[in-house]
Write a structure and sequence with these properties.
- It is elongated and about 85 Å long.
- The protein starts with a strand and ends with a helix.
- It has 13 helices and 21 strands.
- The protein is α+β, with helices and mostly antiparallel strands and 410 residues long.
- Helix content is 30%, strand content 25%.
- It has 2 domains: 245 residues, FAD/NAD(P)-binding domain (3-Layer(bba) Sandwich); 151 residues, no CATH class.
- The mean pLDDT is 93.
- It has a 6-stranded antiparallel beta barrel with strand order 13-16-15-14-17-18.
Length: 410
């Protein structure tokens, strides 16, 4: 009997265990998880709803991989999003497709996804051990043994590292896999946060903390460039340090080399209106309240907490009567509402990121099998690899595809 050991019971590890058990019937498959419960990070994805995958073709999957997309071609071909959807439907979890082809369980409960993976693994004969791996041993360059913190060890003919990255470290993603891989001679590229809140220079962000904006356009420009690196309509949130929310997390994946390059974000507070239409709208509001102070005239246009900020940035004195505001001042106000500027100073820590950018170098992994090119019998899957994607279910698709391929080839 062959001994297959999988480290990490997240989406990649669970899918790998299921795939290994189904494709290698004459094997013992052992799944090692240091948490008491499998899939802890999976439980909180998509605000607890779990955006399982994206209902799209392979070309679209590849277009949404931010780093090393070519590495993913074989894995996506072997186990595309249609296969992921078929797997969960077959495991008794009905799915639905929402805006942007995002796929969720009909129940809107991430726990249903985790339970389906755990039950399928158990049914396939996978044995789970709750312990932490401290070392992976080799003999003549081949995997031989996995040593646990309890002092026990497990004989292994092949071993998969699927320990995740360093994001949401409270769920157990503490970078263990990087250390284990490095001890076996692998290169780990720079670890950075991705899909992460942004720190902004503007002090007014802290005054707006907690304010959520819906149906706004968030654009990010590299300083000096005319074309945005990111532009999308949606929802965002002001925080004590800057900005967060779905739009901002998505935008963060497009911001590269922040230590060398400068980026400016702009919020279009009224994306449905052109500058001309917005000017007419403000003019109507002003005519209705001719004798009001400027600071009291924007109630119909903006959230209450945002008004003092806009008044200050507009350069118009707050006590100016609206019937005294010039056409040029009004035009400048329109321009501000269409492009409220934010200077991006940095990312929040990797522990607050949804995913980690960086990981085991793809140059050292066979893309068709997920096996190490350095150590025979060593495999990788999921976020521990130097591959990451944009939001919309693409990162979980990477986990499931690489997990499936690794498990099959172990």
């Amino acid at each position: 009997m062959k001994n297959i050991v999988i480290i990490g019971a997240g989406p990649a590890g669970l899918m790998a265990a299921i795939s290994a058990a189904k494709h290698n019937t004459n094997s013992n498959v052992t799944l090692i998880e240091k948490n008491e419960r499998a899939g802890r990070k999976l439980m909180i994805t998509g605000k607890g709803r779990c955006n399982v995958t994206n209902n799209c073709d392979i070309d679209t999957l590849l277009l949404n991989v931010a780093k090393n997309p070519r590495f993913m071609y074989s894995a996506f071909s072997a186990f595309p999003s249609s296969s992921v959807m078929g797997f969960f439907e077959g495991a008794g979890v009905p799915l639905k497709t929402e805006r942007g082809n995002r796929v969720f369980p009909v129940s809107d409960k991430a726990v249903d996804i985790v339970d389906a993976l755990v039950k399928t693994a158990r049914k396939a004969g996978v044995k789970t051990v709750n312990d932490k791996v401290v070392e992976i041993k080799t003999e003549n360059g081949v995997i031989s043994e996995v040593v646990l913190s309890s002092g026990n060890s497990i004989c292994a003919d092949s071993c998969l590292i699927a320990t995740g990255g360093m994001s949401y470290s409270v769920t157990g993603s503490t970078g263990d896999g990087y250390r284990l891989a490095q001890e076996l001679g692998h290169t780990v590229t720079d670890i950075k946060p991705s899909l992460v809140p942004l720190i902004c220079h503007e002090g007014f962000c802290s005054h707006l903390s907690g304010l959520s904006l819906k149906n706004v356009t968030f654009s990010v420009f590299e300083d000096g460039k005319k074309k945005p690196v990111f532009k999308e309509l949606g929802e965002m949130l002001f925080t004590h340090f800057g900005v967060s929310g779905p739009l901002v997390l998505s935008a963060s994946a497009y911001i590269k080399n922040l230590e060398k390059k400068k980026y400016i974000a702009y919020i279009d507070l009224k994306p449905a209106l052109t500058l001309e239409q917005l000017d007419n709208r403000i003019l109507r509001d002003f005519e209705e309240q001719k004798n009001k102070d400027f600071s009291n005239s924007l109630d119909k246009l903006l959230p209450k907490s945002l008004i003092p900020v806009v008044v200050r940035l507009s350069g118009i004195d707050s006590s100016t009567k609206v019937n005294q505001i010039s056409r040029e001042q009004r035009r400048n106000l329109c321009a501000l509402l269409k492009a409220l500027p934010l200077h991006i100073e940095g990312f929040r820590p990797v522990e607050e990121a949804i995913i980690t950018s960086g990981g085991i170098s793809v140059k050292e992994i066979n893309p068709t099998t997920m096996e190490s090119k350095i150590v025979k019998g060593l495999f990788f899957a999921g976020e521990v690899i130097d591959v990451d994607a944009f939001t919309g279910g693409f990162n979980l698709q990477i986990a499931f595809s690489t997990g499936y391929v690794a498990g099959k080839n172990m």
